[in-house]
Amino acid sequence: MSTFDKSDPTDARYNGDATSPRQRCALLGIDWIDEAPPVDDDAVSLISADVAVRLAVVPLRVEDDRLIVAMVDPLDILAVDEIATLSGHAVTRVGLDQKILTDL
Prior knowledge:
- This protein is 38% helix and 21% strand.
- By secondary structure, the protein is an alpha/beta fold.
- It has a single domain, classed as GMP Synthetase, Chain A, domain 3.
């Protein structure tokens, strides 16, 4: 378990300065990808294109019965719940920038 130093004004975990989604994800242990990932067709078929566009997500693959999903906002718990319900799989989220999503 990591601890934070309340006396350290540069510690973003304490002072709330982790403002970008990437920084918040790093603090929560959620991975972030920096380039277009490989995508498995079976995973893509679990979520309709309309839902994927609306939620700004890309299903990447299924691993150990968990759907790995790249998300522009991986902290959007409502989107995670919707994906889990629609796909029938528990969801593992990873972050990606909007530009990468647009390029896919």
